[in-house]
Amino acid sequence: MNYTKALPIPLPIFILAFLLLFTPMLASGAILSLSFQQTNTAIALNTAQAKVDSAYLTQYIQNETEFRHHLDLVKQFYRERNYKIAWFKQDELVPQADRLLEALDKAHKEGLKPKNYKVKNLQQMYGNFQETSAGGENKQQKKQELDLALTASYFNYASDFYKGVLDPHSAEAIEWEVKKNKIKLNKALETILQERESSYPYYEFEALHSGYQKLRDVLVQYRQIQERGGWPKVQGEDVVKLHDTASVVLNVRKRLSPQQQVNERDSVAFVYDKQVQQLVSDFQKRHGLVVDGILGPQTYKALNVTVDQRIDQIVLNMERWRWLPKNLSTEGKRERYVMVNIPAFRVSVMENEQEVMRMKAVVGKTMHSTPIFSHQIQYLMFAPYWNVPNSIVEQDIKPHLLQNRNWLQSRDMEMVTTFGPNAKRVPVSRVNWSTMTQHNFDYRIRQRPGPHNALGRVKFMFPNEYAVYLHDTPADHLFSERDRDFSHGCVRVERPADLATYLLQDKPGWDKNRVLKAMNAKQQQRVNLEQNVPVYLVYFTAWVEDDGQVYFRDDLYGHDNALAQELF
């Protein structure tokens, strides 16, 4: 069988064919590269996707004052994606760009100012991009500029929306030492662009905390009231009770039930009946007043707070929600935390984002205000000693000892060499109390465990620089007061046994009976939690309950006023 062998193409002919086929393309690429260098647009292209040059990125962002402080974030975002264009597929914007524009337009619904985020006219930039003929370097430059503008605009907006307009840790006038909100906005943007997955709703441009979302819904309602001219002023001074007749009752009806049609010619409209009494009682409850259903000075004052003032109060508290970490809970089989809302005089136990326990609290008086910070409850101390701070020894105990050297014994207290198990008792006669100060006092004073101990029978420990913790109290009558700012800074809880039982539920053998037994023991006992539980001591003067009703409280320590000075 004969085989005919194919003759090879002579090498010179092959090379010539190759050059004829590819030389035009090579030449075109060389010209394109040269053109980009000459125009200094610095746009690098490859066959997969256009890229942004880092030098041009820096120049572009630094030229805009509102973008400049996000330069490091923009750099990180593009560096981690190898500088690939982010907001385009081919020459069309991805749908997320429209979502961003919509979020910027609706920034006022978040208590933000839309003009702060419209640094560039993004729609106009896209229109100019579309009108530019395809294939030219000018179109690629416009693509790059628009991509950078979209990214910087997102960071400009998202920084305020997710982390707060103000940094509470750097503003001296703001007291807020809660652990920092460490949202990585570059990762959030990757989630929006569907380049990574996240359990947080960044892709919806949505807030992370339900408490914030509820306030935002209420803000819309209150701005609608504002647009209608606000609510009527309630002109009244006299105390008005059930079945009384007074001209002010008509204004109260209009103020608290604006949707109800009232016949001002009907004398019934001026009668303080059960319906009006219930409206007033509900109002008093939502505003932290004594709930007696009676019109009096405090109720008149709260009724006449303007809608503008309430809107500002809502916006201030929305800002505080942005300062909180995105995840408030521990990670594990139970996602839980404890939150103390100082102006509300309330302790809430949260589990899987649901309130599972609520109780009243006593907080620090103005001169000894409870600090705003976060920590982790690590252990419980049953039948505790009260280790008296030296400042209290000087201010409160010294005057008694100057009058009566047996005063400590009458209060089940003792002077010791040190706090802790190595403490040794010493007589009060060793101290010259007339010259004693908190700075030269060499001993310590503590109160022994027992029913009269100032800390009650259990304290909840999260060691911190403020020496503040949650604890029981023998002064249970204080929980019936409306304003409960009586302490030296620590937080007294209304139901200590229930809280202790909840925190120890994962610890074998620690049911409520054992908790009560430990509380009533004569010896101090430390019990560690199986897992630390975050605790937040925060300051919210406006919030929304599950029924959709908004609640307001007075600015107990003046923190609202300080924040307003910075924010507005």
Automatic annotation (TrEMBL):
InterPro entries for the chain: LD-transpeptidase_YkuD-like (IPR052905), LD_TPept_cat_dom (IPR005490), LD_TPept_scaffold_dom (IPR045380), Peptidoglycan-bd-like (IPR002477), PGBD-like_sf (IPR036365), PGBDSf (IPR036366), Transpep_catalytic_dom (IPR038063)
Presence of the UniProt keyword Metal-binding in the record: no
Catalytic residues identified in the record: 471, 490
Name of the protein in its database record: Murein L,D-transpeptidase
CDD domains according to UniProt: YkuD_like (cd16913)
Pathway info: Cell wall biogenesis; peptidoglycan biosynthesis
PANTHER family: BLR7131 PROTEIN, L,D-TRANSPEPTIDASE HI_1667-RELATED
Family the UniProt entry places it in: Belongs to the YkuD family.
